[in-house]
Design a protein that fits this description.
Elements lengths: L12 H9 L4 H9 L5 H8 L3 H13 L3 E5 L5 E5 L1 H4 L2 H15 L6 E5 L24 E5 L12 H6 L3 E2 L12
Antiparallel strand pairs: 1-2, 3-4, 4-5
Length: about 180
């Protein structure tokens, strides 16, 4: 069930934010966009989301200006985070930290590093080596000690996401050469 579109108190920014990203699957789509997923079929494969739901969520994220819908290579459509979408990173990162704290008994599933010097990022997104607040394009994500691949044979999108790479770097697959 989605939240109502009108509230007694129209001044709640959290309620408005949840109207945009609070539906099931939406934040996972945004997360995967940070990981470099850009094509409809790749989102569908990676998330196992029903195609009609994915269509609805992508359309909503484009209408809200979180994603753009653009012609990609080989005539396909690609979805990319806008500046407004990239601004969601602190919230996505905070939710990932919360999940790691309470639902990852074997350790963090994904490690975030400052790609320029290899330093680990703290919970606030600062590099532990140089002290910088690291911008999203300079963050490298890699499997952590709690990471366990699902299944025996990975699709190309999962394979790319599960190898060290910079956030926002597009995933190259056979049908999407990057």
């Amino acid at each position: 069930m989605t939240l109502p579109k009108t509230y007694a108190d129209g001044n709640c920014p959290l309620a408005r934010t949840l109207e945009v990203v609070g539906e099931r699957w939406t934040l996972l789509i945004v997360r995967d966009a940070f990981y470099g997923v850009r094509r409809f079929g790749d989102f569908a494969t990676q998330l196992g989301i029903p195609r009609a739901v994915l269509t609805n969520r992508l359309k909503s994220l484009v209408q809200e200006g979180v994603l753009t819908r653009e012609e990609g290579g080989a005539g396909g459509i690609e979805y990319r985070l806008t500046d407004k979408g990239v601004a969601l990173w602190p919230a996505v990162h905070a939710l990932m930290n919360w999940g790691e704290s309470f639902y990852s008994p074997n350790g963090v599933k994904r490690v975030l590093r400052h790609d320029l010097d290899g330093g680990l990022l703290d919970r606030d997104g600062r590099c532990r080596d140089c002290g910088s607040a690291v911008p999203v394009p300079e963050i490298r994500v890699e499997p952590g000690p709690g990471f366990r691949p699902t299944g025996t044979e990975l699709d190309p999108v999962s394979g790319a996401i599960n190898t060290p790479r910079r956030l926002l770097e597009p995933i190259a697959t056979a049908h999407n050469p990057g």
